[in-house]
C-alpha cells in the first residue's frame, strides 16, 4: 500500500485539513512479479532440455554417431527431450489462450457419467497391468453443460499424474457425486502423496514437489495449472487432499446450472 499526503492550508497558515490517498499498488506489484517469475521459469524450462540436447548432439557430431552402442541411446535422449519441449510449448500456448480475455468455452450438454467412462476407458487400454482402476460412477445420467475438449484435458492431466505417481500394484479410484447444484469429480491414487505445505501450491504454474522426479517422468509442471484455469472458467473449484506415502485425491466441481434448465422448461 502506498499513501500520498496533501496538507490543506489556509492563507493564514493554519492547517485545517489533510487528504490521504491510498493506492493499492500491492496487487499490481504482485502481478508484475508473477509475470517476471513466469518468464524466468519458461526460459529456464526451455533452456534445460536445449542444453541437454546440445551436449548430446555435440558428442554425436564429435564421433559418437559411429559407435553403434552409444549413438541410439543418445538419439533417444534427444527425442525424449524434444517431445517434452513440444509438450511444454503446447501447455504454454494452452495457458496463454486461457489467460486471454476474449477466451470462450465451447460448451455442449453431455451425460457426464457416460463421458467420464469413455475418458477412463482410453487410459484403461494403455495403462500398465499392475495398476487397477475402480470406478464409482452413478449409473444414471447426469446432464451437464461443459466444454468437452477442455474438461477432457483436465481429466487427462489428473489421471496421467495419478498413474505417474502410483506405485506397483496401486489402485486408482474414480468417483462422481451429484449434489444439489454441482457435481464433485475425484481421482484418488495410492502413490507418494503431496506434503501438506505443498497441497495448494501444486496448482501454481511450474510448481513441483520434486523437480527432478517430475522431469524424469516427463512432466512440464503445468498440468494442474491448466486444470485449475479450465475448472474456474467453468465456474467450478479444484483442490487436492493427500496423505504422504498413502495417496492423493484431486477433486473438482462443476456447476449443474439447474436453474437455467428449469427456466427453459417453464417457457
Ligand atoms: P507435472 O508435469 O510435474 O506432473 P503438474 O502440474 O501436473 O506437473 O503437477 C504439479 C506437481 O504436483 C507435480 O510435479 C507433483 O509434485 C505433484 N502432483 C500432482 N499430482 C500428484 C499425484 N497424483 N501424486 C503425487 N504428487 C502429485
TrEMBL record:
Coiled coil: none annotated. It comes from the Bacteria. Residues 1-37 form the PAC domain. It is found in: Cell membrane. Residues 41-258 form the Histidine kinase domain. This is histidine kinase. It comes from Parageobacillus thermoglucosidasius. The chain holds residues 343 to 609 of 609 of the full protein.
